[in-house]
Design a protein that fits this description.
By secondary structure, the protein is an alpha/beta fold. Helices cover 37% and strands 23% of the residues. Helix 1 packs across helix 8. The N terminus is likely disordered.
Amino acid sequence: MQKMCVFNLKTALFCLIFAISAVSPISAQQTLSIQSESTQDTREIVVHLPKNYDPNSDERYAVIYMLDAGAADKMTAEIASFYHWGDLMPEVIVVGLENVNRGPDFLPHYYSVERDGEQIFGNGRNLLSYIENELIPFVNSQFKTNDNKVFAGHSWAGQYLAYTLSQSPGLFDAYFITSPAFGEWSGKTFEALEEALTQDQDYPDLIYLSSGGDGSPGPLSDAELLPSYYRLAALLRQHLPDEVKLVHEIHDSANHTSNSAISMAIALELYFAASPEAE
């Protein structure tokens, strides 16, 4: 199992700048709606198709599912397009999940918060059911996908990816967890994750975990997130099967915002450049 990998951050940022400059532009995005039985509401997704996407061809694509649809999924689609232009990875489909009620949705089902005098339990289990039983089948039915699925989340969404690993680790082939923000909600999630990782079940091929460091001061510093990051990294190192590739790293000069951009550029190359599909 690979425990640590060091990258040149200047190189990563250099690639990122060129990607966002749209050297190889992606197709226009599509916004689609799904009426979810699991969450009992309407969920919207933003789909970024690759430049060469042709619904009439036999080509099929891996899908990157990203929480917190907005700038991050657009950036990821552009980096992926640039990397494909540079023969570093195959073209992919990027799907951003629009938020409905971000706080409760990403909160694990075994936690609750008080709002307006009422205890509201986390909607994490229902959201995961939506992703597994409704969203993924919907995307597969609407677009030309293969079996390769990636899940990406940053900050509070990164915490939700750790929860997903504790509930259904083999649901995705790779997890990109950046600057996970657990706050006071961590103990039960780590316990559930440790228990899940001792079970004989399916696991992803890659888990990429990163955080900004304490070298970037100010309100956007990731310094306060580091204790949970270290705990998660140690737990994964100890319990993941040897066949799972684990890469974890701290970008000391990155803050909470820049770590997302730096990490996505690294994680995409880590996972897809090693794939036979990229050759």
